[in-house]
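During the no-cost extension, the postdoctoral fellow (Dr. R.K.) reprocessed legacy sequence entries with the updated structure-token encoder. One reprocessed record is reproduced below for audit purposes.
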Amino acid sequence: MIPPDRPRGHALRVLRLCSAFEMPPGRPDPRAARFDAIGGMQTHTGELTRALDALGVAQRVVTAWRPGAPRVDRLGRAAVVLRLGVPTRRLRQCYALPAAGVLNRLAARADLVHAHLGEDLAIVPLALAAVRRHGLPLVLTVHTSPRHTMAITGPRSACLRALGGWWERLGEHRADHVIALTPRLAGVLAADGVPAARVSVVPSGIREELFAGPPVADPLVGLPRPRVVFLGRLHPQKNVPLLLAAMARLQATGAHLVLVGDGPERARLELLRDRLGLRRVATFLGFVAHDEVPAVLRAADVLALPSRYEELGTAVIEAMACGLPVVATDTGGIPAAVRDGVSGILVPPGDAVALADALDRLLADVELRRRMGEQGRTIAAGHRWDRLARRVLTAYAAARAPGTRADHG
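Re-encoded structure tokens follow.
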């Protein structure tokens, strides 16, 4: 049963649609790793829900179910999360079929629809159907652009690039407002014909109270230093094999790689680690609850993000908030956050030698790590969710303003 839709004191009712959403607190069902349940988009959508709730927005969030998660859940004071789908890894648990009926019912009681586009073909058609039927404004956040961010790494990504790119362009041109995570993507969308007045930049952020908490005991005790940490999904997009290859080339002695996260690639990556002779210098930590991530990052020395493609990367912002220098691939919108030579080092995608050299440079120079970490803290200070959520509210107001509505077709 869905609770009442307008709690006392909540003026704006928003229907949010996102196939990726944070899991409930606590250690997830072990099966969830195979369902790609953990990642930056999941963190983004959950934290934004929490921040909008604090600003008095009543939200209904429709997302895909994952093993171990409740079908109906509350978040904050007034947000309700509906998880739909069946126990299959295919097609985002087939959540789109039940979502179509639920969205029609929920849209009738909403003031606005906010859809989050990632690697899901169903988001845009579902959102457009809901806003057309009820005459609602549509805000579209582009987390991963199939057309402008995604790299083709196999048949799945080729399909997403072709079909998802077509739907993406349609959604961007028919949305009343589009939110890009980076200035790079905002510029690309404007060049593609989306009116600049209908595009805002709102990056991923951090919950300040979570990342500004007091020091805690080292959660990585027993693992040698210096420590290189990877934080993210164990998924082909993140290109962890490249990081393992770079670790095998390191000149720095005693460095240890800590892989934080889980996903469908874990078993294959553990085999690769062993084949490369890295069992003693690379540890798979597995899932870590988001509330525990800051402590892990503070216990590391460098963050490595070797992604094949990435529009921003929540892990980058979180690492910089903890004073960690970052080594990341120069792709997508990452340079908007990681300033090469200032808060980290950028390397060409797919270049294990360059990645190893950058890690060696930082691991050998404590003072350089400190300087870059301090610069990173300054950059991350502009990514607080309490501030970013207000920018989302500004986008909502722009989408609802008379005379600015787009043609939803």
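The chain has two domains: 12-205+385-400, 209-382. The first helix runs from residue 40 to 54. The remaining legacy entries will be reprocessed before the final report is submitted.
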